[in-house]
């Protein structure tokens, strides 16, 4: 059964300042091997019309966070603590009926694989029209017209005809567009896009990202954009939150985090990105080691087993003391502020070019 408890001492939601406000979110799964804390004390705000990029390796907690916001976690095996407030409404304590009303109406999600969202048994037009009919009370005819209009908006040629097609008659890129049309048909206030372009080729990816930006301008939607690709984040997001092993380790505006990253994990992510100007055959520089098991996460800073800078922190703080993330621009690392700046300028930036 889902267990819900309020986070003691969690700061109050920020009201209109944070349209989506997450405070001290903790998500724990019960597994056969014991509890797994997939998200551990996450707080962030997202404002209307802005895009927050969440970046991190698999298992960092980024997708779990967003499934939790949507109320799509498995209630039998999940314990949730903390607060998720959307436009003044607390979501963790919302009933399933309330969440159902929110999903597809005020909050929508785009997945990496459109086939998980689209049913093979119904036409594309019907799948876009139905949630619109359900949430707006529109007639069947009006909902169909709206579906055709949405298909036109996302750039499907001959939308009136193509609305009668089934998903298997669409290419991968067109299915992704259809899923975006389905997600946006009710003008949601919040859109969660989970690796929406990972499976697409570069040209279609660029088209879909442009489309999302256009639609955001038109509808004023707040977007949470989840990816492991910092290049996509640079193109899409206003703000970035970097996650590692269930915790946020760095956040700031795109400019702040990409121009002057402060956390050794972010340095590693940037350093491991392929560069257009490097010679063919130049090996990539992945972060050494692998993300930890969350059944037995490392003590102190969870990144310490992979961090090549931990010797520069005095004593054994990295292995014993959890580094905290301050509000706004900050990084959860025991290195001093001046130390981080100097390491970045003298050692990291020259490698990034
Ligand atoms: Fe590395 Fe220590 Fe900073 Fe963690 S706290 S990132 S181990 S230097």
TrEMBL record:
Superkingdom of origin organism: Bacteria
Leader sequence residues: none
Domain ABC transporter: 22-270
Chief location category: membrane
Compartments reported by the entry: Cell membrane
Keywords: ATP-binding, Cell membrane, Membrane, Nucleotide-binding, Transport
Membrane topology annotation: Peripheral membrane protein
Positions in coiled-coil regions: none
Molecular-function GO terms, alphabetical: ATP binding
Record bears the keyword Cell membrane: yes
Family to which the UniProt record says this protein belongs: Belongs to the ABC transporter superfamily.
Protein name (record): Oligopeptide transport ATP-binding protein OppD
Gene behind the chain: oppD2
């Amino acid at each position: 059964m889902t267990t819900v408890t309020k986070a003691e001492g969690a700061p109050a939601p920020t009201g209109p300042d944070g349209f989506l406000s997450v405070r001290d979110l903790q998500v724990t799964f019960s597994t056969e091997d014991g509890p797994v804390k997939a998200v551990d004390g996450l707080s962030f705000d997202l404002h209307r019309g802005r895009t927050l990029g969440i970046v991190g390796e698999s298992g960092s907690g980024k997708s779990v966070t967003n499934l939790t916001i949507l109320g799509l976690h498995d209630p039998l095996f999940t314990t949730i603590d903390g607060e998720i407030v959307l436009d003044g409404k607390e979501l963790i304590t919302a009933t399933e009926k309330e969440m159902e009303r929110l999903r597809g109406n005020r909050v929508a999600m785009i997945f990496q694989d459109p086939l998980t969202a689209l049913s093979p048994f119904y036409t594309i037009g019907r799948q876009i029209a139905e949630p619109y009919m359900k949430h707006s009370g529109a007639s069947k005819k009006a909902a169909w017209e709206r579906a055709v209009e949405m298909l036109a908006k996302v750039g499907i040629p001959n939308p009136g005809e193509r609305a009668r097609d089934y998903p298997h008659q669409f290419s991968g890129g067109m299915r992704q567009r259809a899923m975006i049309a389905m997600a946006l048909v009710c003008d949601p206030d919040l859109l969660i896009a989970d690796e929406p372009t990972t499976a697409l080729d570069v040209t279609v990816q660029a088209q879909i990202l442009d489309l999302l930006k256009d639609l955001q301008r038109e509808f004023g939607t707040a977007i949470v954009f989840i990816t492991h690709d910092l290049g996509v984040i640079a193109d899409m997001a206003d703000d970035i939150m970097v996650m590692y092993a269930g915790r946020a380790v760095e956040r700031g505006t795109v400019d702040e985090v990409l121009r002057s990253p402060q956390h050794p994990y972010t340095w590693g992510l940037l350093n491991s990105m392929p560069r257009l100007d490097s010679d063919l055959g130049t090996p990539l520089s992945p972060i050494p080691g692998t993300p930890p098991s969350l059944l037995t996460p490392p003590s102190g800073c969870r990144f310490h087993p992979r961090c090549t800078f931990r010797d520069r922190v005095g004593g054994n703080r990295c292995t014993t003391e959890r580094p905290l993330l301050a509000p706004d621009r900050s990084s959860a690392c025991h290195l001093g502020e001046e130390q981080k700046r100097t390491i970045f300028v003298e050692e990291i930036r020259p490698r990034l070019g």
